[in-house]
Amino acid sequence: MATELGFMIVIPLLAGTLLGIYLDQRLGTKPIFILVGVAVGIAVSVVSIVRIMGSLIDS
Asked: Where are the transmembrane segments (predicted)?
């Protein structure tokens, strides 16, 4: 369970950051897409964790 939660935090954050870096390099818009990618990664992580915790509380 702890490993699953760790991946739920790291993977979306890493994916959002890497996508943001790629888009900023391609479009020359540093640091806009990096910040957006990090924000989206954090949001996805929080939503995933809330869903998992909600299902654990219900059971």
From this structure: 6-23, 32-53
Sign of CA dihedral 30, 34, 40, 43: negative
Taking the whole predicted model, whether its pTM rises above 0.85 is answered as: yes
The count of residues in the chain is 59
| Span 41-45, average pLDDT | 97
Strand, coil or helix: 4: helix
Is 51 exposed, middle or buried, given 0-12, 13-18 or 19+ CB atoms closer than 10 A?
A: exposed
Provide the greatest CA pair distance for the chain.
48
